[in-house]
Amino acid sequence: MRESFTTKEEAMADMIIISGEKGCKVHHIARVICSLPNVYWYSNIDNGIHPWNISTAKTSKITARKITPKHFDRVMENGDKLPPLWDYVQGFFPSQEEYLRAIFFPAVEKARRQTSKTLVFTTHLPPFSLRQYFGTIPTINVLYDAKRALKRRLLTSSNFPGYVRQKDFVPENNPYLIYLESLKKQKKDFTQKDLWAQKTHKTFWKDEYSKEYEDYLSFYMNKNLETRKMKFPNVVDVDMDKVDWKKVKNFLNGYDKIPQHITMPKKSNKG
Question: How far apart are CA 69 and CA 79, in angstroms?
Answer without folding.
Answer: 21
